[in-house]
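Human: Respectfully, please carefully check these tokens:
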Amino acid sequence: MTTGALFILLFGCMLLGMPIALALGMSSIGTILMFSDDSLASIALKLFEAVSEHYTLLAIPFFILSSSFLSTGGVAKRIIRFALSIVGHIHGGIAMASVVACMIFAAVSGSSPATVAAIGSIVIAGMVKAGYPESFAAGVITNAGTLGILIPPSIVMLVYAAATEVSAARMFMAGFIPGIMMGFFLMVAIYIVARIKKIPCQPWAGFREIFASGFSATGGLMLIIIVLGSIYGGVASPTEAAAVSAVYAFMVAIWGYRDIGPMKGTPWRKKGENGAQVVLRNGYEIALSLPRCCYNKEVHKVIMDASKVSIMLLFIIANAMLFAHVLTTERIPHTIATVIMDLGLEPWTFLIVVNIMLLIAGNFMEPSAILLIMAPILFPIAMKLGIDPIHLGIIMVVNMEIGMLTPPVGLNLFVTAGITGRSIGWVIKAAFPWLCILLFFLVCITYIPQISLFLPELIDKIKGY
């Protein structure tokens, strides 16, 4: 009876058009008040504990802030230039370079919509000017942007780690090879289509341009080494690495590249008394005091936008965890696990059911909410069937990638529609052929566990020696 009331309230709220966070919270609170002895005060405490008790979740605001500075600070332009110098001369090279740029930017942002916005806003128009069909360009970027939640560091992986209490570092390791593999699949498909449609390619840039563009993009590329190197090397936890990435991205955008902030476009000048660092601007020597060179309206907007996204996401997570708490209290995951085990499902058939459920949920819900609701249900069943929790996590993340491309809640579709000025229907048609590649990739990830587990197991062996 309690379970029925919980899901009736949830779907009732969603049918009324209520945001998913409020639907999860209201259904959970209503169920608790009707069928539990808990007070409103205890519900408020559980909402607070849902976020504060999971140390891993603290990494999310830092990664979002880091992504905001890098998206605004011109790092994307330098990464695109570097990618073009490497693969721009191949048939479909600009589109391939866009995929490479998405892979690199994914490794510094951890967000799929941010990857589409940062890379797509530059390369879609560039591809059209170079002779690519606009639908081709939009479809490639919309799909390649999903790598933002698969290539580490990934915000969605952090949410899964918090929901199941598996190692976030191992999840990051597990996503590395699948992310590269997905990018390779897309580039092979681009090459085939480019040869068939005879899309022009760029001239060979030369090694000088490769080194020059690589040096220019060093500010962004170093973030990958700092974050992943510190995590895999055991120097820092994912949360600590995320905090460092936010500070580093701030310094690169404002002091390094000077694409935003009060020093925007101004070169370094070594002048002044006592070796003081000053900058020549409009004929005046201005001392680089900390408040003056670090903060202005542009920086304020970046921080406020990142704060809004963080608050929204953490609010969804808190309500989803309250919903998961009600599920656990009512022993719903245990009951479902018992029923499935009694049915005698094999692991491979169970994974088919998992994929179908997640693909359907991805049409209507935000990835973090799906993971926080479904992971507590699916995790114990997978463990009983002998499915590795890291493998299950990567399967769920790939399903969330596909959810970014399916209406009515596919975030990447809306971002691309905003960039191109086209309708959602047009973007869906443009993205669909490339979505088929993602579905094939999902099958590979589901039934070849070593794609996900090879790197974590290898690093475990190295550390064991």
Remarks:
- The chain has one domain: 53-290+316-464.
- The first strand starts at residue 278 and ends at 281.
- The two ends are 53 Å apart (CA to CA).
